[in-house]
């Protein structure tokens, strides 16, 4: 049997990971500054993470949500404490797309409406409603196009007000830092204004923190830089450090009813063990503050590279924008300098999404390699 060929692949086969480094099947060592799309939050094979998962799978790897699972409440308690969102309610699922799918479904349930407002260059996943709210026609099939979604420019409150007045919108969904779209951000003024407009018109305000959450921006959630309180917060990537887990935080004003959301695998014992381990390490190693410190150092070092035209993003969700497309630069970095980086829909942007355990010496290695690569291309 062949694999369904939907991924263009780099010619490298990782077989082992250790903190910031991965090793391929030829024994070659790579510096991982991409974390598999911002998934690796506490470093590859962190000892506490490995022990938590190993111990749990030996005891009980899975049972469904038809029974009590105290690990879910432990995860909820630790998540509420570290995020400052302890008044929200947690629903667990398996991925970022699934988190956004449930967020949009819940908004439609609550409001009785169906139209969604999303934003240009936004990305929210590849499932039915999540991909319909993603600004990329090439990954939307006719089935997805049946959803009623309107795309607006970032930071135009008058455009948002014009749409919400029509009275048919269930949700406004937005990334506080765009991931795939290229690290553009809504302003504080826009986010606060959007929240007020949503309240005024009875629309649920959804913050997609799938990539920007879990300490990556220097705060637990990136929306916390803007003094807002969303109705629903979606999260996933850094949540399990590679183990499939996602979730939504639901404002206490939204009432749960049996059957309105559900999942077979979401919140299983093994997933919860992974999620608890991640929260333990973020707290014990003070990784949110660390992300701020490393971000400041990274920014200072990058300023020594004249080819970088703009530094985008926050914390350890960073983008370096050039005046040329970076495809060849990324290949040179991975094949010659042995460094993983990322791209985006902005072909001139190099995305940097390292594990939050990154140190200054890793930044120094990258800066030196980037300077060499820029001289060579």
From TrEMBL:
One of its GO terms (molecular function) is pyridoxal phosphate binding. Pfam families: Aminotran_3 (PF00202). InterPro entries: Aminotrans_3, Aminotrans_3_PPA_site, Class-III_PLP-dep_AT, PyrdxlP-dep_Trfase, PyrdxlP-dep_Trfase_major, PyrdxlP-dep_Trfase_small. Transmembrane segments: none annotated. Keywords: Aminotransferase, Pyridoxal phosphate, Transferase. Its cofactor is pyridoxal 5'-phosphate. It comes from the Bacteria. Belongs to the class-III pyridoxal-phosphate-dependent aminotransferase family. This is Acetylornithine aminotransferase.
């Amino acid at each position: 049997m062949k694999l369904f060929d939907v991924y263009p692949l780099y010619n490298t086969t990782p077989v082992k990971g250790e903190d910031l480094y991965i090793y391929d099947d030829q024994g070659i060592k790579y510096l991982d500054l991409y974390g598999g799309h911002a998934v690796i939050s506490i470093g590859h094979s962190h000892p506490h993470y490995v022990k938590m998962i190993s111990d749990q799978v030996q005891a009980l790897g899975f049972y469904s949500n038809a029974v009590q699972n105290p690990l879910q409440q432990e995860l909820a308690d630790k998540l509420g404490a570290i995020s400052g969102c302890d008044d929200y309610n947690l629903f667990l699922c398996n991925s970022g797309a699934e988190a956004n799918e449930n967020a949009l479904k819940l908004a439609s349930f609550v409001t009785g409406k169906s139209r969604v407002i999303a934003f240009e260059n936004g990305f929210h996943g590849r499932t039915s409603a999540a991909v319909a709210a993603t600004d990329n026609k090439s990954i939307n099939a006719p089935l997805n196009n049946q959803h009623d979604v309107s795309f607006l420019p970032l930071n135009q409150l008058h455009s948002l007000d014009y749409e919400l007045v029509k009275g048919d919108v269930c949700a406004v969904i937005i990334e506080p830092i765009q991931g795939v779209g290229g690290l553009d951000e809504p302003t504080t003024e826009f986010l606060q204004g959007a929240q007020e407009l949503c309240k005024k018109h009875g629309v649920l305000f959804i913050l997609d923190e799938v990539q920007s959450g879990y300490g990556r921006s220097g705060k637990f959630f990136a929306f916390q830089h803007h003094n807002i309180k969303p109705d629903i917060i979606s999260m996933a990537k850094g949540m399990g450090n590679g183990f499939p887990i996602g979730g939504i935080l639901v404002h206490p004003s939204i009432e749960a009813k049996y059957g309105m959301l559900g999942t077979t695998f979401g919140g299983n014992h093994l997933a919860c063990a992974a999620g608890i381990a991640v929260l333990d390490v973020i707290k014990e190693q003070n990784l949110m503050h660390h992300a701020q410190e490393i971000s400041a150092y990274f920014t200072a070092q990058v300023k020594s590279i004249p080819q970088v035209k703009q530094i985008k993003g926050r914390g350890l969700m960073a983008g370096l924008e050039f005046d040329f497309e970076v495809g060849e630069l990324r290949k040179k970095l991975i094949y010659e300098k042995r460094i993983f980086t990322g791209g985006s829909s902005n072909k001139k942007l190099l995305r940097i999404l390292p594990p939050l355990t990154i140190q200054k010496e890793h930044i120094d290695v990258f800066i030196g390699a980037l300077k060499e690569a820029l001289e060579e291309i």
